[in-house]
Amino acid sequence: MTEMVRPTLARDPLAGGNGYAYDDTGTPVLEVDNASKTYPGEPPVEALRGVSLSIGQGELVGIVGPSGSGKTSLLQLMGTLDRPTSGHVRITGLDVATMDDGDVAYLRATRIGFVFQQFFLSEHSSLLENVADGLLYAGVPVAQRRQEALEALELVGLAERQHARPTQLSGGQRQRVAIARALIGQPAIVLADEPTGNLDQATGKSILVLIEQLHQAGSTIVVITHDRAIAERMPRRVEILDGLIVADSGSDASADRRARTAFQGPVPGAQPEPSPGEYP
């Protein structure tokens, strides 16, 4: 196994969460360096072709592209769910290519938060338990997991529903729980894959507002979407097509790369949405 020290979450300078532990010398939170991904077949499928992308601390980035553009393959590389055929992926300066599977799994568990459109919540567990499970593989004691889970639920306006089960929630509330689970432990970066894909337009807008508020509070977030209107809301927009990045408004977001102070308390304006049956 490679020589990777496995610290308690949020104690190691590289795992400080959302870039809070970084100084202005600026190790990027995430780097994709000339990465390609080819899937075997006849002929082989080139999903990504020499993609380079750097995400700085405190950025909110929208990655947009149509179906088949390569954005899902890029998400899998950024989230260390897959490895590039060539090139490099670095999370908080650590090169995934130099690590064995165990170290990569630990890196993923402690430094990357995921939000998916399907929510992936356990229907038989409480909201608190669902969120606390986000630290299950990070070696955090049970009592600390539950405390941090409650704090994460407070961030998304659902602390008062901590004992409820996902089946008692609306779709928007479920996605808020999924976001809380992604934020627990202050990961270095949150990857949100089509976070409004299973929601109606009004509820989806409220989730985007929450993401923007969390970004203002210091979170580094990447939203992967096929919807240009969603991408246009982001301070930085990256467009991918045919396995290549064809546009990047990165210079527009330079001010968002500065370190932020850790945010305490609920996100301003984060209010729980009505439960099923409460809609007019």
What does this molecule look like?
By secondary structure, the protein is α/β, with parallel strands linked by helices. It has one domain (15-257): Rossmann fold, CATH 3.40.50. 26% of the residues lie in helices and 21% in strands. It contains 7 helices and 10 strands. The chain has helices at residues 71-78, 101-111, 127-132, 142-155, 171-183, 201-216, 228-232, and strands at residues 30-39, 45-55, 60-64, 86-91, 94-95, 112-116, 189-193, 221-225, 236-241, 244-248. It has a 6-stranded mixed β-sheet with strand order 6-7-8-3-9-10, with helices on both faces. β4 and β5 (94-95) form a beta hairpin. 45% of the residues are buried. The model is unreliable at 1-25, 251-266 and 274-280 (pLDDT under 50).
Rg over CA atoms, rounded to whole Å, is: 18 Å
Number of domains: 1
Order of helices and strands: EEEHEEHEHHHEHEHEE
What is the class in the CATH system?
Alpha Beta
Task: Report the β-strand fraction as a percent range.
Answer: 15-25%
Total helical elements: 7
Strand order, main sheet: write it out: 6-7-8-3-9-10
CATH architectural label: 3-Layer(aba) Sandwich
Rounded mean pLDDT is 82
Specify the helix fraction band. 25-40%
The beta-strand count equals 10
